[in-house]
Design a protein that fits this description.
Structural class: alpha+beta
Low-confidence stretches: 1-45
Shape: elongated
CATH class of the domain at 338-536: Alpha Beta
Helix content: 10-25%
Strand order of the largest sheet: 16-19-22-25-26-27-28-29
CATH topology of the domain at 338-536: TIM Barrel
CATH architecture of the domain at 338-536: Alpha-Beta Barrel
Mean pLDDT: 93
Strand content: 25-35%
Amino acid sequence: MADKKKPGKPAGDAKKSRSVKGAPVEKAPRAKTRSRRSAASSHEHAIVESTPQLLALLDGEYASPHEMLGAHPASAGGVEGVAVRALMPNAIRAECLLEGGRVVQMTVAAEGRSKLFAAFLAGEKLPVSYRERFYFADGATWERGDPYRFLPTVGEMDLHLFNEGTHHELWKRLGAHPRVVDGVRGVSFAVWAPNARAVRVVGDFCGWDGRVYPMRSLGSSGVWELFIPDIHPGALYKYEILTREGAIRVKTDPFAFKLEQSPGTASIVEPALDSYDWGDAAWMRERPGYDAVRSPLSIYEVHLGSWARVPEEDSRPLTYREIAPRLAEHVKQLGFTHVELMPVMEHPFYGSWGYQVSGYYAPTSRYGTPADFRFLVDTLHQHGIGVILDWVPAHFPKDDYALRRFDGTALYEHEDPRLGEHPDWGTLIFNFDRKEVRNFLVANALYWLQEYHADGLRVDAVASMLYLDYSRKAGEWLRNAYGGRENLGAIELLRGFNEAVRTRAAGCFTVAEESTAWPGVTKPVSEGGLGFTFKWNMGWMHDTLQYLAVDPLFRRYHQDQISFAMLYEYSEHFIMPLSHDEVVHLKGSLLTKMPGDEWQRMANLRLLLAYQFTRPGKKLVFMGTELAPWTEWNHEQSLDWHLAEADPNRAAMVRFVSRLGELYRQTPALWRDDRGWEAFRWIDVADRENSVIAYQRSAGTPHEHVAVVINFTPVPREHYRIGVPSRDLYRVVLSTDAMEWGGTGFGAVHDVQPSPSPFHGYEQSVELTLPPLGAVVLAPAR
């Protein structure tokens, strides 16, 4: 962010005196201070003694500027009154403007790198209301309210809870907040920088001059604070931090609610958090009673920048407000219950897809404002669609304007690169052992759930957090205090995060992308687990895709791959992901992973989705799967929406996904008891020769069940018999080979009557014609 000079406001040599890259800055020669005593007869000058504190204030290194600046009781020549002092570099004259129109001239009480003006207000008592006016050599003037006459806007209890690591609404105290203090409108700033010698607010409201607004230290808490009158939403700002070594680092606000769009890096003052007029009251009233484990949960994963673009405007992404109604209608048509958004938190590198976050409290400005993002969530809720956000506490980028070495030390990260740097992604790892860092992250999670009404958080790269030796060779990592490889701080963070969501955001849920065999990921914290609601079933995904990539002729030799996941199905509460990770980096699209000609590939893809939606576990599908594209996902391009318009087979696939979503939501047997082993039963998993599997899903009553039969070969199976639990008439509620989905319609039937022929452990059975590469779902007719 380039420095800008505002007319009549300080800049000039301030721009020359600091480095925005964080390099050490050579100090200007210290000028001598001029101490002045007012004449007893005039009482117009406040008494200023030359002290080390005064010299530090003039040099911008004093941690308690409010002790000298602002209004203080004073006396001159035996007369009681109030001394008003103001710091303003480059000004040549100053005035104190009192209520009633009284103007008191201020004199230069001391000079150094900055200039101290003072006035003595005889007979006045605190509190006194006034403003300040400064005159500059170019004829400009600047009138402002005095920032140094206000009490701290962060309370002692807030500081205590933060240092303890338990402040669950930390974003309401740290950061930049428009507010009214003692009847004066302005913005309060607060930032954690415990190792700084001094911290200043800089912005377009002061010419980016760090000498104008030094902040005060709030003791051992490490927090610095300042309320500045007359600043309004939209103002650009940063923090100028003087390190222990005397270097200056200019940083964005870790709690900024909005950041400039790249290549700009300034924080932006946002309106009050409660200024958006939500329309999802009905959704939010019902949310606390929502039980994600015992409810239908099918997720449509979205990357906002590439879901759709505007071709006539250089293929720019849709804004939050533009995408909101289109996405809501599309997802509702497909029957998904939730949208999962890949990280929307501000990130400097678009190609990271949002997984390298620099602004944890700011929705990316690429698609609009924070209010616009609220509109997107609001719209989805009003269409009955929940919102899950990808959340990335595992690492953050090394961009020097952000969290890296924030106050000149490894504040948010570890000092030792064996703990603080991620070898795979070239990023930094949070110091999870530090209470304040854990508080920053846990509060951030609650922030998105409370302030943006998100319904769930999917935590990225959990495995990399849990293991100190993750992706490291011998000698590249350090053991924990007990000699193990578990990251104890990360475990504490994850447990604290999940407990905070459980207790403070009722009805919301959490999801772990955890790819190892770490035990108890979804077990409650009270029972020794990590406390997540769900875990991605990466094993199911790998086994299933690997199995379906095999030529159907040889699938008989790999039947165990399709059944193996049931051996550990009830060890956790799982979501089955067919995510963006499976269709990038030359992996091809899901369609191209399938063998055979185009028809067989489309049939395999329908079969895959039917298998995913009818077996235990919740569902996640990446955007565009409904279009069955030939090409893999490209974050720089829109989805191939033209396919559904130009190709009848793609249009049929969209209809199929829609029917599958409808069937899933309307069939409790497919979701109510996912967590219970009694809700699933193999009918037959041993027919390797025909590559057929059959299973039953139940929801607790005799009529609430379905039978699923899948033929993994392109060979139709006529007169195929399976046992069924009921003697009632069965109805085919889905066949993936139906002609309306682009199938052959081979042997299509609507109703099937069981015969009293025991089979597969049941007292009755049905005879079916299994379509090629097809799945058939049967349900008792009602």
